[in-house]
Amino acid sequence: MRPLIDELCVFTGNAHRELAQNVCKYLNIPLGQAEVFKFPNDNTFVRILDNIRERDVFIIQPMSAPVNDHLMELLIMIDAAKRASAGRVTAVVPYYGYARTDKKDQPRVPITARLVADLLTAAGTDRLLTVDLHAGQIQGFFNIPVDELTALPILVRYFRDKALDDLVVVAVDVGISKRARDVAERLQVPLAIVEKRREGNNASAQSLNIIGDVEHKTVLTFDDEIDTGGSILAAVEALQERGAQEVYSCVTHALLSGSASEEVVASPLRELVATDTVPLHDKRLDGKITVLSVAPLLGEAINRIHKGLSVGALFQ
To answer: Looking at residue 203, what is its pLDDT?
Structure first.
């Protein structure tokens, strides 16, 4: 007989406490109490301080930098929750790390996105809640239910309110063109695509061609994430060479590794709009990088999962 899970509990590690607190504020519940820290020997320790026996437990932890530390925290928190007799444990992973390594595209390389899925399942995860996976097939790496939310309505609403003239949505590569087309359709504007070739395993990318008309247009580039900023900034340069007047960018996950935030601020990009799936409090924003919160989206999804309601209805 399945245990009763009539009480909702939300916990978090050290990856993004602010987001977890905002989700709990939306749900009007306190954030669960837990100790999560490292011993001097670099071993991670977790102790859940609340009684969670037969409760519906949600652990919010994006795999943001340092990725391996935060992934290990998540795995240990899941194990701790299961050993504390939680009724159900849902891993809420707004940003799924290692998602780019989703296929064997070179000899003798791993499929790390699948390995992470196996680790989460082996730790005792009953369900995964995430936002805008880099590749849709990652859902198939799990043998447990996966709810993939999308931040597209949040991003689209922001730019619809700006009411930019002569707008064109641009996919920064062919792989993201399907989602970029969805953005263009929601904004009722044309779509263009930047054709590029990534060189080797480093972060550099060479923009080769722009498919579509951007001359004298206001351009909105779209991608699922920005890491070092190489792809987006190369696209901005190529779009300006093709006559684009102003260039805006929007992404779901703003990793902004290394000096990426400084480079974005110093670039000709008019504005970068991202969500808070990963923390940005230590990045240079300078009013050029706008952050929109996914806390209400995650909070409502958690509420629906807890009550057995449709999550997909959120986007209908």
So the answer is: 52
Residues 14-37: tens digit of each pLDDT: 999 999 999 999 999 999 999 999
Gyration radius from the chain CA atoms: 20
Cα of 93 vs its chain's centroid, Å: 8
The half-sphere exposure of 161 on its side-chain side, counting CA atoms within 13 A, is 6
Give the separation between CA 26 and CA 240, rounded to whole angstroms.
41
Is 307 noted as a catalytic residue in this protein? no
CA distance 214 to 190: 10
Q: How far apart are CA 59 and CA 295, in angstroms?
A: 14
Both structure tokens of 150: 């999308």
Instruction: Compute the distance between CA of residue 185 and CA of residue 176 in angstroms, rounded to an integer.
Output: 14
Angle subtended at Cα 251 by Cα 31 and Cα 132, rounded to the nearest 5 degrees = 60
| Maximum C-alpha span of the chain | 65
Q: Which domains does the chain have, with CATH numbers?
A: 8-150+295-315 (3.40.50.2020), 152-292 (3.40.50.2020)
Marked catalytic residue, from 196, 217, 283, 307? 196
CA dihedral 98→99→100→101, nearest 10 degrees, is 60
Alpha carbons 100 and 134: distance in angstroms, whole number: 6
Burial 160-180 (b: 16+ CB within 10 A, else e): eeeebeebbbbbbbeebbebb
Q: Which residues of 181-216 are buried (b: 16+ CB within 10 A; e: fewer)?
A: ebbbebbebebbbbebeeeeeeeebebeebebebee
H helices of the chain, in order, are 17-27, 67-83, 112-123, 152-162, 177-187, 230-241, 260-266, 295-307
Alpha-carbon span 66 to 252, nearest angstrom: 19
Tokens of 97: 């790390």
Output the pTM of the full model.
0.94
Contact present, 166 and 217 (Cβ < 8 Å): yes
